[in-house]
Predict the 3D structure of the following.
Amino acid sequence: MDDDNSDDAAIHQLSGTEVSPTRSALSVPSRRQYFDRVTNQTRDGVGADLADFVARPQSYLLKIHFDNERVHYEVALHDSRDVIEVGLHFEDGPVSSAAYLQYFDTRIVELKHQLGAELELERWTASWGRLYYLIPLRPLDAARAKQTSELLVRLIGAIQPLVVSAQVPAERAAEQRTGPWRSWRRSH
C-alpha cells in the first residue's frame, strides 16, 4: 500500500468529509485505510518469526493476536480524548490477567528503559489489564500509521517473546465471543 499522504485527502474527499488542518474526520474509509496501513507495515516490520499474526480491524480499533485472541495487541482510536492507544491487552480472565500483570509488573522498569518511559501498565478490572502507549490521534494519516506501526513493531518484538515465556495458561481462550462488533471483523 502506498504511504502517500495524498491518499488521505482523497479518502476524505470520497467520504464527503472536509479535511481541516487541525481536525480531520474519522470516516469509515479513513479508519480502514489507517488500519490496513498499520497492519501491513507491522507485518513487514516484525520479521518472519512474528509476522504470522491475525489482524482484526473493527470500527474504531484493530486487534492483533497470536495464539490467544484474548491476549492481543490493540490500536484503539479514542476520538473523544483525541488519542490513539497502542498496547497489549490481557482479557482472558481474572487468573490469567493477574498472572500476566504480575509477570510484567516485575519487569516494568526494564521494559520502560527498553521501550520508553511513556509505556504504562494498568489493571482496570480483575480480568482486564494492559501495557500501553497513548499518542495523538490527529492527523490520522500515513505518518500517524507509520508511527503506530513502529510502536507496534517495538512492542511485539520486545513483549511477545515475554508473553510466550510467561507460560500463562489460557483461561477462556476457547469461549466464543459474541456481539455486534463481530460484523466489523476483517481478517488479514
About this structure: The beta strands are 54-57, 61-65, 71-78, 83-90, 120-125, 128-136. The chain has one domain: 6-171.
